[in-house]
Amino acid sequence: MKASRITAIGLVAAAGLWIASGHLLPHEAAESHAGIHLAAAESKKPFRVAVQRTTLESHRRKLAVSGRTEADRRVTVMARTGGVLTELLVKRGSQVAEGDVIAVLSDEARESQVAQARSLVVQRQTELDAKRRLIATGAAPKLDLVNLEAQLDAAKAGLAAAEAERERGVVRAPWSGVISDVMVEVGKAAFSFMGADIATLFSLDPMLAVVEVSERKLGEIKLGDSAEVRLITGATATGKVRFVSKTASQTTRTYRVEVELPNREGAIPDGITSEVSLPLAPLPATRVPRSALTISSNGDIGVRIVSETGIVGFVPVSIVEDEHTAMWVGGIADQSRVIVQGQDFVREGQFVDAIEAPALSAEAQ
Description:
By secondary structure, this protein is of the alpha+beta class. It has three domains: 47-59 and 283-356, conserved putative lor/sdh protein from methanococcus maripaludis s2 fold, CATH 2.40.420.20; 64-72 and 203-282, Efflux pump adaptor protein, beta barrel domain (Elongation Factor Tu (Ef-tu), domain 3, Beta Barrel); 74-202, CATH 2.40.50.100. The protein is built from five helices and 21 strands. The strands form five sheets. It has a six-stranded antiparallel β-barrel with strand order 2-10-13-12-11-14.
């Protein structure tokens, strides 16, 4: 028992000496305190974020709407008289100019009727000339002159009618365009019925880009505004708004808008899918990187800014226009410092170390 007590007393004494050694080594204690203070100082160093100073501008938004191209003019050419088709001078895809012959119908004695009417005019003119000579010599009364002049006018009217009927036997293009469909073949006798369809003609120049716009955006679209059109093929064109409907579709409650596109070479086909960018009324907005947008604890979309004193704040924004790498937003004051890097690692009211970030890259511009 005595040995065990001695051993216990020795252990207690050794522990006491080990604890007291901290007070007996002042140099080592100073180094320990310095390390503690350094760690505390590092822990109080403000978080560093990258900011970008913004500029408030009057930005003209663009409304992108999917639509289609549509020929400006389209008509079905019809026969205006009876007969059998003897010549068909066009086929699908044929380009015709105004006045070009599309088809020819059988004569059906129309030429003979013209010759007969012309002979009658000559006869009436000869009779009138002879009567005038007789009246000049006093051999005939003047009352017969009025009757002969009326007969001559009637003969001339008959000749004009016969020539018009002969002209109806030749079907011509009313304006320049492209034949999209031909409904007949040579020898078909269906033209004995006046008004039978021969071919469909449409015009390629100008071409229209047609879209349907909602009633909320209708008031911001103006006639004459420039619009950009991108076809599904990748081709682009620029035109002007030429028509804005004042009547809504009964099914979709949207309004038809037409953009006129020059198409002299016929490169833009009819009926192809397209995307039309229509300019809207300008609004004050700020351009920021897409990555700068964040969500507050309340679920609001906005950006975090840094005041001149280094305090973080949150500003809710409204989306004005969405671009590929940047956003046009409203609600940010001019010359604000928006956090573009590190905004998700800080909170409102926190003091941060803000450094200027480079301007938007050329790709974002």
